[in-house]
Amino acid sequence: MEYIKVTKENLDREHICCAISNDKDVQVASKKAWLSERFDDGLVFLKSVERGKCFIEYIPAENAWNPIIAEGFMYINCLWVSGSFKGHGYSNDLLGECIEDSKEKGKNGLCILCSAKKKPFLADPKFLKHKGFTVSDEADNGIQLWYLPFSSDAQPPKFKECARHPHTNEPGYVLYYTSQCPFNAKYVPIVEKTAKDLDIPFKAFHIDNKKEAQNAPTPITTYALFYNGEYLTNEQMNDKKFVKLISR
């Protein structure tokens, strides 16, 4: 497999999405704008030459858009291999490149969000365990922080207190999200309209800066839905999924 490193210089002409084929889609545009600003923070985006099939995205943990304490670690935003490309060792390739690059940069290890059981848009715990990752912290909602230290004396990463106990004081349905994957630019307004049509209390908070993301009331900042203060899910909602959720 041949891989391409996406940079500011080639971002405009590279396909970055695992689910959307149209590069002009508003969701892709919002993600590319977010990526462009993160490169200055040390973001690395490595992808296969195949459109949207295999990629890894990682950043120094101090600049991660998540409420974690992981000094000297590299944080993996996403490691994705899709469809028929699974089972060919491409995840190993991408993670191996991340490990080598992180060691060359003097990092203490890697960390990534996961859970005991596979959840949408989170890493596969079986794969992480196979590669030597272990759990360093866990939030009340079952979201875990896994890590792979490069030395025995590396201090395990942990969640900030605001993320360890996910909660919001806002009534009704409350969504926190960023412009990272999964893509939300198109679907958040759809859910907002659906809630309004059904007279359901709904607020969406678009986290648009690192400080807010690092102090969010949830380990997952890409998409976190709450109801009456309690965390519900990180699964992206469209109108049909939202109606099904509120009918439970």
Question: What would you say about this model in short?
Answer:
By secondary structure, the chain is of the alpha+beta class. The protein contains seven helices and 13 strands.
- The tally of strands reads 13
Percentage of β-strand residues: 25-35%
Overall pLDDT score = 91
* Radius of gyration, in angstroms, nearest whole number: 18 Å
> Roughly how much helix do the residues carry, as a percent range?
10-25%
- The run of helices and strands is EHEEEEHEHEEEHEHEHEEH
Count every helix, treating DSSP H or I runs of 4 or more residues as helices.
Answer: 7
Low-confidence stretches: none
The SS-based structural class is alpha+beta
| Oligomer designation | single chain
Q: What sort of overall outline do the alpha carbons produce when their principal axes are compared?
A: globular
Task: Chart the SSEs and their pairings.
Blueprint: E1 3-6, H1 26-38, E2 44-48, E3 54-60, E4 68-69, E5 73-81, H2 90-104, E6 109-115, H3 125-130, E7 134-138, E8 143-149, E9 158-159, H4 161-164, E10 173-177, H5 187-197, E11 202-206, H6 210-213, E12 223-227, E13 230-233, H7 239-246
Parallel strand pairs: 5-6, 10-11
Antiparallel strand pairs: 1-2, 2-3, 3-5, 4-9, 6-8, 7-8, 10-12, 12-13
Description:
The structure is a single chain. The chain is 25% helix and 27% strand. The chain is α+β, with helices and mostly antiparallel strands. The strands form 3 sheets. A 7-stranded mixed sheet has the order 1-2-3-5-6-8-7. Strands 11-10-12-13 form a 4-stranded mixed sheet, with helices on one face. A hairpin with a 2-residue loop joins β12 and β13. The chain is globular, with a radius of gyration of 18 Å.
